[in-house]
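for the writeup, i need someone to sanity check this before i put it in the appendix. the sequnce is what the collaborator sent (i think, or maybe the updated version? ugh). structure was predicted straight from it, no edits. if anything looks off just tell me and ill rerun, i have time this weekend
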Amino acid sequence: MTRSRDGDSASEPMTATSKFGVVERDMLPERIAARLVSLIGERQLRPGDKLPPERELAAIMRVSRASLREALRGLSMVNIVEIRQGSGTYVTSLKPELLVEHLHFFFALDDATFSEWLEARQILEPALAAAAATTATDTELAQLRGWLARATAAVEDPDAFLQADLELHELITNAAHNQILARFMASLARLGMASRRRTNTLPGVRRQSLGEHAEIVNALLARDPRAAAEAMAHHLEHIRTSLRESAVRDNT
């Protein structure tokens, strides 16, 4: 199959059975999707390629059109394919930031626990803070200085302080200048909103968090990667302790 510059297939149809293979009729749509993803991994399907028409592809793989349609819908949800009404189904650009765009949705479906959520943050965020200490622009450092003043003013307001908390971690992530990690962090932030709301109302937590945030910001302003990573790790460990103590109180 050949492709035009804009990603559309030219005229030569895909030689089908050898490429797409036969999928047993009792296989789930997930397994149909897995076969298509495998073709992408093998470079038999590339960004911009157009898949055969639905009726043709279902016949090639020997599956029902309903199962194929469900598989394609699933792939479109994670931006692996794009279904264009009246045109057909195309492999997307497969850019990493596109593929992780809805990652929070799958984290939520997997019922990740608060402990797992925190573990993911404890792995990622100290490294992000260290990176931000070396890559932040002067403008981004100025934003961090402004953030510290706003957070200090908001410490008595749970809702305002929650927004400030989210903003700080977003500023740090952006200052690390890694689009893929930024997408992961955005997903983790959405997944952890319930946890943040819970800790945000615990006695003394906001003031303690403000002090820890200040340590992180000051390390970033000093462009000290080690201090930034250590301050972030200390902050996240405090969050873990607060959640654990809160759970104990709830169960007694």
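The beta strands are 81-84, 88-91. The two ends are 66 Å apart (CA to CA).
thx in advance!!
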